[in-house]
């Protein structure tokens, strides 16, 4: 039996979140905060639909999707207004795990083979409004996509008999029993719609209800039982916490079995406080959550290594890491390439938000995009000229100039290093 997912959905119309099932009633003016809220309270995935009617609104929705991706820590499937390959590319580049094609539109049916071959079938989902579309287009769906989003109450048993492609059901039902029935269907991997998209839903409590109904509701599963770990004299398991991107050691804490189980269940690092004698979720008061990427036990099974996505600072002092006080050794300059790039990028972004008099970076931002592009072009030319000379030092110098100006362009256009590394990984 596979894991099931709770997947709230956001319909974007005019830059606001609307309730599609209730004649587009506005449910949130701040789409970004709503998306972040879903991730923070335990949703497993997010579906975003763009209901725009014009190219201008569509571009605004793409920008919102990009901004949503920066604040959530759960996967996102996005679609709407997809008419050509470029639209799929924009959704994926904005951070969507999958781009969704609406198979109620013939244009999407014609497009699926092209975008699947360009981006990979694992990056393509299909939305369906009726059973007939599934039956007629089954071969295309199975060959060129890896997920179905059902926008209608269907005979789920019939669906399973037709296709093996996993599906998420978006339903307008508010009946808990109906939601549980949907989740128990073998071909369903998740449920969405009005019930799951309630702003005040307690996802963890509902997952407990699902578990009591023999529905597996966690994205993580430990392959080693907590009883197999070797605990310290206090009956606790030490945990070393590391940034998954930079490998920087952030902090050290302890877990008991309850904290370990909550970490697995929620996807948020949860510890046991020796001083307060109680469980605590990292970031619950500060907002500086740690989202689990991997948990690994050492060779003696007595220390856990957690690689996490850290929101904000890890240390209560405001420092990025708890390990910031030198004891022995000389100062050294950080050499981790990603850390260097992230640090320079952060400085450039800070200059844009907090201008500093006399700053060359601020001069570029003040002059605007044309000046920035001109400098990027000039520096690229300088690299070519330097590469024709025998001294490699000139190339290093010119490439450093180019990368700096490229980062100014990235900040100006809202592109992060994570966007770039994700794109390289996808390629």
Structure overview:
It is a single chain. By secondary structure, the chain is an alpha/beta fold. The protein has 3 domains: 5-213, Aldolase class I (TIM Barrel, Alpha-Beta Barrel); 226-310, Phosphoribosyl-AMP cyclohydrolase (Ubiquitin-like (UB roll)); 337-426, Helix Hairpins (Orthogonal Bundle). The protein is 41% helix and 20% strand. The chain has helices at residues 31-40, 55-71, 85-93, 106-119, 131-136, 138-144, 156-162, 176-184, 203-212, 257-266, 337-353, 360-367, 369-387, 392-413, 417-426, and strands spanning 5-6, 9-13, 16-19, 25-28, 46-50, 76-79, 98-102, 124-128, 147-150, 167-171, 188-193, 237-243, 249-255, 270-273, 278-281, 290-297, 304-310. α2 (55-71) links the parallel β5 and β6. α1 (31-40) runs parallel beside α2 and α13 (369-387) runs antiparallel to α14 (392-413). The longest helix has 22 residues, at 392-413. The protein starts with a strand and ends with a helix. Residues 1-340 are annotated as: Phosphoribosyl-AMP cyclohydrolase. Keywords: Amino-acid biosynthesis, ATP-binding, Cytoplasm, Histidine biosynthesis, Hydrolase, Multifunctional enzyme, Nucleotide-binding.
């Amino acid at each position: 039996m596979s894991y099931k997912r709770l997947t709230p959905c956001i319909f974007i119309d005019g830059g606001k979140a609307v309730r599609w099932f209730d004649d587009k009633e506005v449910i949130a003016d701040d789409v970004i905060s709503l998306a972040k809220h879903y991730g923070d309270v335990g949703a497993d995935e997010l579906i975003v639909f763009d209901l725009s009617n014009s190219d201008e609104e569509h571009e605004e929705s793409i920008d919102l999707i990009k901004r949503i991706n920066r604040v959530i820590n759960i996967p996102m499937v996005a679609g709407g207004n997809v008419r050509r390959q470029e639209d799929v590319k924009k959704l994926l580049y904005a951070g969507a795990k999958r781009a969704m094609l609406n198979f109620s539109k013939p244009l999407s049916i014609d497009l699926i083979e092209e975008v699947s071959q360009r981006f990979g079938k694992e990056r393509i989902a299909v939305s369906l409004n009726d059973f007939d579309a599934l039956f007629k287009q089954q071969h295309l769906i199975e060959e060129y996509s890896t997920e179905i989003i059902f926008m209608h109450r269907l005979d789920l048993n019939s669906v399973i008999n037709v296709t093996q492609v996993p599906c998420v059901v978006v339903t307008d039902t508010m009946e808990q029993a109906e939601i549980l029935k949907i989740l128990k269907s073998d071909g369903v991997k998740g449920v969405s719609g009005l019930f799951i998209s309630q702003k005040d839903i307690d996802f963890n409590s509902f997952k407990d209800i699902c578990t009591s109904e023999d529905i597996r509701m966690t994205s993580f599963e430990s392959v080693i039982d907590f009883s197999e770990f070797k605990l310290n004299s206090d009956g606790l398991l030490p945990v070393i916490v590391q940034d998954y991107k930079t490998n920087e050691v952030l902090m050290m804490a302890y877990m008991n079995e309850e904290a370990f189980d909550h970490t697995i269940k929620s996807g948020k690092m949860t510890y046991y406080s020796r001083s307060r004698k109680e469980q605590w979720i990292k970031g619950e008061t500060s907002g500086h959550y740690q989202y689990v990427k991997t948990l690994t036990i050492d060779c003696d099974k007595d220390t856990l290594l957690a690689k996490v996505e850290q929101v904000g600072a890890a240390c209560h002092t405001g420092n990025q890491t708890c390990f910031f006080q030198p004891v022995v050794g000389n100062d050294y300059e950080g050499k981790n390439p990603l850390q260097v790039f992230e640090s320079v990028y952060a400085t450039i972004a800070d200059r844009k938000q907090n201008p500093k008099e006399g700053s060359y970076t601020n001069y570029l931002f003040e002059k605007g995009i044309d000046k920035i592009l001109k400098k990027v072009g000039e520096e690229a030319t300088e690299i070519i000229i330097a590469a024709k000379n025998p001294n490699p030092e000139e190339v290093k110098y010119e490439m450093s100039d180019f990368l700096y100006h490229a980062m100014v362009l990235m900040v100006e256009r809202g592109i992060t290093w994570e966007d770039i590394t994700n794109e390289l990984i996808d390629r």
